[in-house]
Fold:
Amino acid sequence: MRTPLIAGNWKMNKTHFEAIKLIQQLGYELAEHDFGKVEVAVCPPFTSMRTAQTLIEDDRLSFALGAQNMHYEKDGAFTGEVSAEMLKALRVRYVILGHSERREVFGESDEDVNRKVRVAFGNELTPIMCCGETDSEKESGETAIKVERQVREGLKSVTPDQARSIVIAYEPIWAIGTGKTATPDDAQSTIGHIRSVLGTLFDGDVASSIRILYGGSVKSGNAGQILAQTDVDGALVGGASLDAGEFAAIVKAIK
Ligand code: PEP
Structure:
């Protein structure tokens, strides 16, 4: 039984003052929500992590805290970076790894993503590992090959026990922040393929326990249909996570 997860990736948005407001509004919007049925995570920028952590804990909110990235080294001369140990100390549960913006804008490779995934597990963090194809890869029918490579490379040397808890986010790059979404059928087909790849990497039992999210312009208006697909276990939400009412409506769209 996979508990669906709706995770909000705030990207480089919101000061820590604004983060307080957004989390409080979200707490209000989801006051009656059953978090045992649908898990909800917020992934603010690093400058708001401490604020978010204390607010969530002090107000006994049931949101999980997630980070948007981390470095794979333990410590040292890595100006501007944040380690897994630092996130763990903040009681961060999730860390988004290999987001297409990290891959495309900051040049992260599959190997970097794999190192981060393994270090995250070593620090009791749950990776939300992203994969997805570009527009031209989609047009040339390479979606399955691309996501398969990213999943295989990203999960190298990950044990079956670790794999059970990982979250994978299928995010077609052409859908991120564009207002375009994969059709529910296409999302199901690619996510189903990812699950079958996981079955060959581990086994069917492990594959069926891994949560696979869809991401790419999810809004309250399109969430219901996408999230109703058999293999879609929730959503990674960018733009729409910046509005408490809209994000809460996506959470409530899971039946
Ligand atoms: C994302 O950045 O992970 C994302 C899915 O963004 P958006 O929802 O804005 O397309």
The radius of gyration is 17 Å. The chain has one domain: 5-252. The chain has a mean pLDDT of 98. The CA atoms of residues 100 and 216 lie 11 Å apart.
